[in-house]
Amino acid sequence: MLVGDSGVGKTCLLVRFKDGAFLAGSFISTVGIDFRNKVLTVDGVKVKLQIWDTAGQERFRSVTHAYYRDAHALLLLYDVTNKASFDNIQAWLTEIHEYAQQDVVLMLLGNKVDSAQDRVVKREDGEKLAKEYGVPFMETSAKSGLNVELAFTAIAKELKHRSMKLPNEPKFKLHDYVKKEVRGSGCCRF
Ligand SMILES: Nc1nc2c(ncn2[C@@H]2O[C@H](COP(=O)(O)OP(=O)(O)OP(=O)(O)O)[C@@H](O)[C@H]2O)c(=O)[nH]1
């Protein structure tokens, strides 16, 4: 499930992942909730992701609350060009703790890093906040595609690992995987 303030790029991130395209132009806010499916092959196993795109607007909050309980994973987004969306992350985390399952897979994403000239939230600030709450973090761009596939693949890997629970398989650590992959991807050019 994708959550975060209105306009941070949740729908665009999902469309980029699903269709490999960017929705340029006018911004059409999501009404309530929407979903799309995508099948990924992770370590030779097919993982079907049903991805719920929620409305960030306050007036739809009671609708989204109802969906938290059934979510296996949450991608919490802010917009690196919008300080308020970053400042609101703590409030989103409070909601998540209140409504989602205790063991929900959670990842923090700072989106729109292609807009370097408009950036107001530094990468280090995102990293610091994520560290404080013990959640994996990466910066993304639905526009350029940076780290989009990686974010969803990391989630799929964690979910696959959890559902299969093979006794001899070493424990998959989402945090370490994300750190290693982001470091290797040349992500920090923005
Ligand atoms: N430059 C840039 N713009 C983006 C990016 N992602 C989204 N946008 C723009 O940001 C605006 C909002 O994107 P949406 O994906 O509709 O935002 P949302 O979070 O789904 O918004 P709600 O449905 O209201 O919750 C649109 O004008 C997009 O074109 C990005 O990675 N880079």
UniProtKB/TrEMBL annotation:
One Gene Ontology term of the biological-process aspect is:
protein transport
- What is the required cofactor set for this protein? Mg(2+)
Q: Name one Pfam family in it.
A: Ras
Q: Tell me the GO molecular function terms.
A: G protein activity; GTP binding; metal ion binding
Matching InterPro entries: P-loop_NTPase, Small_GTP-bd, Small_GTPase
Lipoprotein in keyword set: yes
Q: What is this enzyme's EC?
A: 3.6.5.2
Q: Tell me what reaction this enzyme catalyses.
A: GTP + H2O = GDP + phosphate + H(+)
Q: What class of enzyme is it?
A: hydrolase
Q: Where on the tree of life does the source sit, at the highest rank?
A: Eukaryota
UniProt keywords, alphabetically: GTP-binding, Hydrolase, Lipoprotein, Magnesium, Metal-binding, Nucleotide-binding, Prenylation, Protein transport, Transport
The similarity annotation says: Belongs to the small GTPase superfamily. Rab family.
Q: What is this protein called?
A: small monomeric GTPase
